[in-house]
Design a protein that fits this description.
Elements lengths: L1 H111 L2 H21 L2 E4 L11 E9 L7 E7 L1 E4 L2 E4 L1 E8 L7
Parallel strand pairs: 2-6
Antiparallel strand pairs: 1-4, 3-6, 4-5
Helix pairs in contact: 1-2
Amino acid sequence: MVEKENVIEKVLDENSSSGEAVANETEDKKLTEIDILKGENQKLKEENESLRQKVIELEDAYLRKVADFDNYRKRMLAQMAAMETEGIKKVIKEFLPLVDNFERALKSSKENKDFDSLYNGLNMIYSLSLNLLEKFNVKPFDSKGQEFDHNLHEAVMMEEKEDLKFDYVVLEELEKGYKFGNDVLRHARVKVGKKKKNNEEK
């Protein structure tokens, strides 16, 4: 009987020791997992801080680029305005001799009362004007006798006539048209003729 009790106590002691060992092992495992989680958490914090710094750097770089572009745009606008002003000044300077010639013609006509001299002076100024326009690649184009073309002409008057070879011919040039290179700078204002229909055609 005593021997049986000893066996039971031994088994209980072994079970108790085994339980304690399992408990200790479980506790150690939990501590290890906690340490791993702490390490991962710290790593995530560091990565998050690194990303935050990169975002700050990118925002700063973006703002610098925006400021640089705005400064560049302002410089370009200022340069374009300066170039436009210089271009206008250059054209005006080229036209000043025409003003001088007009002044001379007016002064001469007032002093001499000579119509021929005035006419010759004005004709000279007109020739100088055309030469100056040609210098800027601006030339007048002839319209009289040409077929009406809405790309070149602006009809301000119309007249029916019997002796026309075709409809819509320019009878008279009221205001000359000009081209800048191949582009129409100003349409010619014209009087257009239309063939008059006889009774049979009606």
